[in-house]
Design a protein that fits this description.
Distance between the termini: 55 Å
Mean pLDDT: 91
Keywords: Cytoplasm, Methyltransferase, S-adenosyl-L-methionine, Transferase, tRNA processing
GO molecular function: tRNA methyltransferase activity
CATH architecture of the largest domain: 3-Layer(aba) Sandwich
CATH class of the largest domain: Alpha Beta
Protein name: SAM-dependent methyltransferase
GO biological process, one term: tRNA N1-guanine methylation
Largest sheet: 7 strands, mixed
CATH superfamily of the largest domain: Vaccinia Virus protein VP39
Number of domains: 3
Low-confidence stretches: 242-250
Shape: globular
Order of helices and strands: EHEEEHEEHEEEEHEHEHEEHEHEE
Strand content: 25-35%
Organism: Natronolimnobius baerhuensis
Number of helices: 8
Number of strands: 17
CATH topology of the largest domain: Rossmann fold
Strand order of the largest sheet: 13-12-11-14-15-17-16
Structural class: alpha/beta
Radius of gyration: 21 Å
Length: about 350
């Protein structure tokens, strides 16, 4: 059958394979094919493949030696992969356990199976999980060359946003000062730092900040990352003296940032005054929002202008749809340039 494949010259094949593997995009159900000096690498999600890759549809052979959960169950179960964990969203406990058993008996490299036991809740945006297989809820996730340790029961993390995080990371330049207002375990901060940015990551969840510091060590960017457990509103105060470096002095970052990430889509508007205070004379703001499909970008743009103007000239550089969030609702991002 025809499946989506990344097409690449054979001499660049291994580098491309590693990049796709780091993004967890290689479809292990199919063989990688070589023909006339060209490599065809099957991928799991065509929408998650960025424009830097040449995406085609091609007939490739299935892997005959690999047993999939669907082969055992005789139906195709729904689950997400995060490192060596499989994440289910099943209301029926018996069905959930049946799927978990099949996943472990398959050839998937999975050690832990978790089933969602609640919605995301509370100020720290965590959820409850039922442990169906494995020792605990801690996993190690790899994404575009970065490695993230995290505990799903203690922190918020979405593997579905890997492509969006990569889109923003590609905009970062060496020497920038980047500020993530809701940093979590560092999925924006860590790749920014690896590109040479000086980064500050803030989160109100102490577990998330502990993992952010651990992930800075894992990815060799400790010297470029400052992790702060705080309400971000306390870190921009024009009446206090700014620290001479991001490591010392009072934690005041008024007029500091060249780039700000605001990935709190249900309530980012409540923190825009803080974002504008954090912004330097020229700053790119990545503002995430969830709005009705009839006008997904208008409310965010109007709110940003209301808060930032006339102190800043406001230019919307990109209006980007990240994904569908719910019926008739879209998760979107506005990339906005502020110039004082």
């Amino acid at each position: 059958m025809e499946v989506p494949c990344v097409r690449v010259a054979r001499e660049s094949g291994e580098q491309t394979r590693r990049e796709l593997a780091d993004a967890d995009l290689i479809d292990d159900d199919y063989e990688i094919t070589v023909e006339d000096g060209t490599l065809y690498i099957p991928v799991t999600d065509r929408d998650a493949v960025t424009d830097e890759f040449d995406l085609v549809s091609r007939r490739v052979d299935e892997r005959e030696t690999q047993t999939r959960p669907a082969d055992i169950l005789e139906f195709d179960p729904s689950y997400e992969r995060l490192g060596t964990a499989a994440l289910l969203d099943e209301d029926d406990p018996e069905r959930a356990q049946e799927i978990a058993t099949a996943i472990l008996e398959s050839d998937l490299p999975v050690e832990t199976v978790l089933n969602k036991a609640s919605k995301v809740k509370g100020e720290t945006r965590v959820r409850d999980w039922e442990l169906l297989a494995g020792e605990n809820t801690e996993v190690v996730h790899r994404e575009y060359g970065c490695e993230f340790a995290l505990d799903l029961a203690a922190v918020y993390f979405s593997p579905r946003l890997a492509t969006e995080r990569h889109r923003i990371t590609q905009q970062v330049e060496t020497g920038e000062r980047a500020f993530d207002m809701f940093a979590g375990v560092g999925p924006f901060v860590i790749p920014f730092a690896k590109r040479g940015a000086e980064c500050v990551g803030v989160d109100i969840n102490p577990d998330a900040i502990a993992y952010l510091r651990e992930n800075a060590r894992r990815n060799d960017v400790v010297d470029d990352v400052t992790a702060i457990c705080a309400n971000v509103r306390t870190l921009a105060d024009p009446d206090r003296e700014q620290p001479s470096t991001t490591k010392g002095g009072a934690p005041n970052y008024d007029n500091w940032a060249d780039r700000i990430v605001m990935n709190l889509p249900h309530s980012a508007d409540e923190f825009l005054e803080t974002a504008v205070a954090l912004a330097g004379d020229e700053c790119v703001l990545h503002y995430y929002d969830i709005q009705h499909e009839d006008d997904p970008f208008g409310p965010g743009e109007r709110t940003i202008r209301a808060v930032a103007e006339p102190e800043y000239d406001v230019t919307v550089e990109t209006r980007h749809t990240v994904r569908s969030y719910a019926p008739h609702e879209l998760n979107v991002c506005l990339d906005v340039r502020l110039e004082r």
